[in-house]
Amino acid sequence: MKIDEKIKKSEVLIQWMDQRIDGLEISSDDRTRISAGCLDISLEHQKAIVLLIANKLIGSAFSLARLLFEAYIRGLWLGRCATEQEIEKYQQDKLRKTFETLVQEIEQLEGFNEGVLSKAKAANWDSLNSYTHSGYLQIVRRNKTDTIEPNYDDEEIIDMLGFANAIGMLSALQIALMAGKEKLAMELLEKSKTELGKP
Q1: Of 51, 79, 99, 158, which has the maximum CB count within 10 A?
Q2: Facing residues of 148 across strands?
Q3: Which class for 175: exposed (0-12), middle (13-18), buried (19 or more C-beta within 10 A)?
Q4: Structurally, how many domains does the chain consist of?
Q5: Domain span holding position 177
Q6: What string of H, E and C letters represents the secondary structure of the chain?
Q7: Which stretches in the chain have pLDDT values below 50?
Q8: What value, to the nearest 5°, has the Cα angle with vertex 166 and ends 164 and 172?
Q9: Rounded Cα–Cα distance for residues 141 and 153 (Å)
C-alpha cells in the first residue's frame, strides 16, 4: 500500500469513529471525566499524526507516537485501575507511578492479561522515546547524502499510521464502554480486526 492510500484510509477510519463516538454521554464523576479526557487526547494525537503525515511533517508526526500511547494507557489505567487516592494524586499532578507499572496493573484485568500492551511497549518504547526526545532514531531520519531534510522510509510511515490507528481505535473502544454502549464497543472491536490487520 502507498502512503497516500494509507492516509486516505486513516482519514476514513477517523471519520467513521467520530460518527460513532461523538456525543456519547458518560458519567460526570472525576474518574470517568479524567479517564475520558486522556482517551480524547489520544484520539486527537491520532488525528494529528495523520494530518502531519499528510502534510509531509513526518518528524513531528513520529514525535507524537509516544504521547498517543501514553494518553491511551493513562486513560485506561485511570478509568479501570486507579484507587480513589491515586485519582486525587493525579488531579494534583502528584501521582508517581512509572509507565511500566501502569501497564502491569492494566494487564491484571480480565481482557488485558495476555500481555499485549507490555509486548507493544517492549517492542516500541525505545524508538518512541527517541522520536519524541529528538534522539538518534529521529535525527538520523533527517539526513540525506547531501542535505538535512526528512528522510523516512515509506514502510516506516505506513507502520506509524497503522500504530496511530490501532491506538485510536482502542481509545474509541474504551469511550464506548464508558458510555455503556457495548454493541458499539463490539462494532469497534470487529472493525479493528478488519482494519488493523492490513497495513
Answers
A1: 79
A2: 143
A3: buried
A4: 1
A5: 3-195
A6: CCHHHHHHHHHHHHHHHHHHHCCCCCCCCHHHHHHHHHHHHHHHHHHHHHHHHHCCCHHHHHHCHHHHHHHHHHHHHHHHCCCHHHHHHHHCCCCCCCHHHHHHHHCCCCCCCCCHHHHHHHHHHHHHHHHHCCCHHHHHCCECCCCECCCCCHHHHHHHHHHHHHHHHHHHHHHHHHCCCHHHHHHHHHHHHHHCCCC
A7: 198-199
A8: 100
A9: 9
Per-residue model confidence (pLDDT) at position 199? 37
Residue 98: per-residue pLDDT: 95
Show the cell assigned to 161. Answer: 499510521
pTM greater than 0.90 (yes/no): yes
